[in-house]
Amino acid sequence: MTIFDRLIAARNQKGSAYLVLIDPDRTSEADMLSTVEHCVDAGVDGILVGSSLLISNRFNNTIQAIKKEFSIPVIIFPGSTIQLSEHADAVLFLSLISGRNPEFLIGTQVLGAPIVKKMGLEAISTGYMLIESGKSTSAEFMSNSKPIPRDKSDIAVAHALAAEYLGMKCVYLEAGSGAIQSVPEDMIEAVTGYTSTPVIVGGGIRTPEDARKKVEAGASFVVTGNVLESKDQLVLIKELASAVHWKGDGKMSLRKAQ
Ligand code: 1GP
């Protein structure tokens, strides 16, 4: 079974799946491993590793350290072609489809593809869309591309449909790490109502309530990063996981049938 199939199976079984993003620059190895342990305990479905910009050289070691201790899927969420590691299980093979910067639409993919093949990584083709979120984000600055205005769901829908027709396996609606405002629910609803490609939503999700709103709007996968750098981490991860894993709790009234 591929990692993507595993994630889809988790989504089908639990309603939606929960992914936690680890930025190798932000924590020590010991803290990072304790976060992953909490994720495993809380039933998180996969760990993403990556960042728009890395200052340290801990990328490869971070992934290797996680895979040495845990069997949870580790998926690279790359900011550039140097963020690849043979120790990971898969890579979100991103194309920044909301932008018009050829470097991030196809240039880095051409450089990265042979490396991905050589490393034997599963490539999960993903249409990556930046969504305006209240301030300029690192992803926006580093990619030199404009986000989609948050009140323009029709633009997001057309991009998602183009991604589906291009054969991408999923689309990622990204408000950006530390976003002031997370992706609006009406945009998620519009995209998931119009296309059948699974939708990942991330950026600025800080509470279980907000995570639940994203899955009620149709998100297949919810990603959190920054918010887990808190004291009561295990409690928060468990609350976020049960907000995302809605199936069977009887609280999902707005959800469309899958
Ligand atoms: C994943 O970049 C986000 O899409 C993570 O954002 O750090 O704000 O949770 P946060």
Describe the structure.
The chain has helices at 3-14, 29-42, 59-69, 102-119, 138-143, 153-165, 185-194, 208-216, 233-244, and strands spanning 17-22, 46-49, 74-76, 90-96, 122-130, 170-174, 199-202, 221-224. It has an 8-stranded parallel beta barrel, surrounded by 8 helices. The model is unreliable at 253-258 (pLDDT under 50). The chain has 258 residues and is of the alpha/beta class. The protein has one domain (3-257): FMN-linked oxidoreductases (TIM Barrel, Alpha-Beta Barrel). Helix content is 41%, strand content 16%. The protein is built from 9 helices and 8 strands. The two termini are 21 Å apart. Helix 2 crosses helix 3, helix 2 crosses helix 9 and helix 8 packs parallel to helix 9. SN-glycerol-1-phosphate (1GP) binds at residues 21, 174, 176-179, 202-205, 223-227.
The spatial strand order of the largest sheet comes to: 1-2-3-4-5-6-7-8
Return the domain count. Answer: 1
Structural class: alpha/beta
The count of strands amounts to 8
Short summary of the structure?
The protein is an alpha/beta fold and 258 residues long. The protein is 41% helix and 16% strand.
Q: What are the key terms here?
A:
binds SN-glycerol-1-phosphate; disordered C terminus; eight-stranded parallel beta barrel; TIM Barrel; globular; 9 helices
What are the SSEs and their pairings?
Elements (H helix, E strand, L loop, with lengths): L2 H12 L2 E6 L6 H14 L3 E4 L9 H11 L4 E3 L13 E7 L5 H18 L2 E9 L7 H6 L9 H13 L4 E5 L10 H10 L4 E4 L5 H9 L4 E4 L8 H12 L14
Parallel strand pairs: 1-2, 1-8, 2-3, 3-4, 4-5, 5-6, 6-7, 7-8
The chain binds SN-glycerol-1-phosphate.
SN-glycerol-1-phosphate binds next to strand 8.
